[in-house]
Amino acid sequence: MKELLKVSGLKKYFPITSGILSRVSNYVKAVDGVDLTVGRGETLGLVGESGCGKTTLGKTIIKLHEPTEGEIFFEDKDITNLSASRMRPVRKRMQIVFQDPYGSLNPKMKVEDIVAEGLVIHGHSSGAERKAAVGETLHTVGLREDALSRYPHEFSGGQRQRIAIARAIALKPDFIVCDEPISALDVSVQAQIINLFIELQERLGLTYLFISHDLRVVKHISDRVAVMYLGKIIELAASKELYENPLHPYTKVLISSVPVADPQRKRETTLLKGDVPSPINPPEGCAFHPRCPIAVAKCSREEPELRDAGSGHMVACHLA
User: Which domains does the chain have, with CATH numbers?
Assistant: First the structure.
């Protein structure tokens, strides 16, 4: 599979200021040294607890946040330090679908203007031609053309997310960050949106970074899955391999917590001790060791490297 996106040593730290002079006293280490590659046409799932840095990683990759350190390559082109003007041609090829279909759409804009906004910014077509393109895009995501003249509040949550998806694909991008795009939707609607993402990928040749805390959804849609904990990738493998043979203790806990739709089937659930450490002062050594059920002395002293445990199954654990 040809590589579309690569990030190396990516970090995003948010400064904490204090005192009258607002001097920087510390940093929130939201993303702390991530290495990832995404192949063209692939769906890479990204899972982890709330606050682990998933959304920040997605936004930093497409440069909604400027990286603190590291490199971002898109089609072998280093886009890490591109200026706003030089980034503009690249930006239309990298889009995002946000989590909240209510907050991500401007309530004062009609659907036609919302979907056409990117076309206007990048100078694509005008007048009747642009309106026709917007209508065709709405049809692609399963909405009727009469939606053009309506406002976001006139639609259900699922329909609003379809509008957000239409806005993302209007510029015919190559790469889309899907930031928990179904978590705010009813369960009955979630499957429809997931199937829409799969259909659009097949039809348009899209590449996804699919961020979610729902491991069942990620298993269904992803080719590979990366597990994130406290700003770092701690395990990465093909979807089937990760779910059938998790190596990191944290991944095992996540998978054991997934509900099983069979009241007769019993499974052992592992509960974690303690709270998630602060990203301001993460633990020394392995960040997971204060909560790990199998941690040894070495785990508190040495940070494990993300290494290949065989067949491309990457894991950062001394005991895996």
Answer: 3-85+223-259+267-315 (3.40.50.300)
